Amino acid sequence: MTKRKWYYALVLLQVLFLATMSASYYAMDIWGKEITLRTEPIDPRDPFYGDYIRLEYEVETIPEDRWKVEEELKEGERVFLILRDSGEGIYELDRATTMWPETEKAVVLQAKYERYDSGSSNYHVDIGLSRNHVQENTGLLLERRETLFVDIVLAPWKQKKISEVK
Fold it and tell me: Which of 61, 97, 93 has its CA nearest to residue 79?
């Protein structure tokens, strides 16, 4: 192959890679499962970013009795949160583990371990969806509410995104 063909092949691969990344974001709406989580809003305004909300999800605080991890984890290690429907359409934490569950029907959120709080006997993890931009001048309205509900789309390929804050 000549240098020119290699060049075009490389450019084509880069374009295909970027197109696949973009398509996967929108494909989550088609093949993903939508779940609703309970959360609390924190600090909705930043002069550089505009209106956004920082979210602290209920499932990110894990009581000791639901922590099914044998070994001691370091900050940033992967944890899987197995969720169950509360019956009201809102998903709650069933248990946290370091192993992907065998059952295909389980709703699983991948998270990163943060710390253990000995004062409250809770483990803390981060699901990676703690910041969401909102329409201008709506951040303060959302902050005043004690509880928010967030619809999250979970793709079969373990990608996730916020679809709606209500």
Answer: 97
* Domain extents in the chain: 1-31, 32-165
User: Nearest-CA neighbor of 130 among 32, 4, 39, 19?
Assistant: 39
Helix (H, G, I), strand (E, B) or coil at 18: helix
Number of helices followed by number of strands (H, E) in the chain:
2, 11
Task: For residue 142, give Cα distances in angstroms to 31, 47, 93.
Answer: 29, 17, 24
Neighbours of 77 (CB within 10 A): 15
Q: What is the pLDDT along the chain (166 residues), one digit of tens a residue?
A: 688 999 999 999 999 999 998 888 888 888 989 999 998 877 655 666 667 778 889 999 999 999 988 888 999 999 999 999 888 889 999 999 999 888 767 899 999 999 999 899 999 999 999 877 776 666 666 666 778 899 999 988 888 998 888 8
Per-state percent for the chain, helix, strand, coil, to nearest 5: 25, 45, 30
DSSP 72: P
